[in-house]
Amino acid sequence: MNRFARSTLALGISLALVSAAQAADFEDMDPVTLRLAHVVNEQDGFHIAAVKFQELVAERTDGAVTIDLYPNASLGDERTLLEGMQIGTVDMGVITNGPVANFVEEMAVFELPFLFPSPEAAYAVLDGEIGQELLDKLADVNLKGLAYAERGFRNLTNSERPVTSPEDIDGLRIRVMENPVYTDTFRELGANAIPMAWTEALTAMQQGTIDGQENPVNVIHSFKLYETQEHMTLSRHTYAPALFVMGMPAWSQLPDAAQEVLVEAAREAAEHERRMNAEMEAEQLDELRDAGMEIVEEPDLEAFQAAVEPVYEKYGDQFGDYLTRIRAALQ
To answer: Mind giving me the DSSP string for 90-140?
Structure first.
């Protein structure tokens, strides 16, 4: 037997032993069903992450923990879901970082405009010491952070005109998440920034009561925003994480072995979603163009960055030393 075959055999044996040990951990556990909710549709990255998580948890607990999925805001908007987790009426969710920051304000540091130059830079910070510290802070508000999935780099769409510089945004009514960093970012860019839940934003775009919104390519694609938004700008103005998050009432009732599986499954499902998002984006952009969307691929990013500098002046100190530490980690 050659060395590769021996190592492969050894790996297979060790994985089988781990699997057997995990299965044994759950033999005496009363079956548990957890309700995982999110606000987007089944084509979205959040649902891709949730399905992967569901599969991993079922496999690794030998069916002792079942994850039921509730997409499409069927259990409420993101704030409602988080509040439900705190009191135990919802067990867990995949939630955009912006609403989570309303509960732990330091979380908003990740969404300062133009902070991360690439997805890889964001992953290094989120999956490292800084990201874990902020996940742990959720315990102070009766929530348990498991892992960072992603919403992704956010881009601007609107129904009025092409946007290549901040001057083009002047006066546009832009929906933003219910988060002060987003609101102030777009006000500095000259927009009439209107915070609202995503479910309301979809109706508002159809009715023409707002001109535009900002979201990653995958959201713009999966919600067919080309039906109301003719113009898109690849501004990549903010990298938005998302979180696998649980309510402490649900988390604290689980044995240690189940908690360990949930954390590891959330991390792997998040990595799976990140890979899928990267693979799908180019194809999604082509489909948006084919559907009639005009896409500005190279806006004047230096002008945008200069325009939002007051956001850093306003919020920099609010995040303690997190902004300083993130910038040092990015060097």
So the answer is: S-EEEEEHHHHTTTSGGGGGGGSTT--SSHHHHHHHHTSHHHHHHHHHGGG
The two tokens of residue 214 are 């900002």
**Tens digit of pLDDT at every position of the chain (331 positions):** 544 344 444 444 444 444 444 667 888 889 999 999 999 999 889 999 999 999 999 999 999 999 999 999 999 999 999 999 999 999 999 999 989 999 999 998 998 999 998 999 999 999 999 999 999 999 999 999 999 999 899 999 999 999 999 999 999 999 998 888 889 999 999 999 999 988 899 999 999 999 999 999 988 998 999 999 999 999 999 998 999 999 999 999 999 999 999 999 999 999 999 999 999 998 999 999 999 999 999 999 999 999 999 999 998 888 989 999 999 999 8
Bridge partners, 28 (sequence order): none
Residue 39 gets the label, from left (phi > 0), alpha (psi -120 to 50) or beta, of alpha
Residue 241 burial by CB count (10 A; 0-12/13-18/19+): exposed, middle or buried? buried
3-state secondary structure of 143: strand
Query: Which one-letter amino acid corresponds to residue 85?
Result: M
Could you tell me which of 145, 58, 60 has the C-alpha nearest to residue 97? Answer: 145
Residue 214 near residue 156, CB atoms below 8 Å: yes
Q: Which parts of 196-256 are beta strand (E)?
A: 212-215, 231-247
Determine contact, residues 234/301, Cβ cutoff 8 Å.
Answer: no
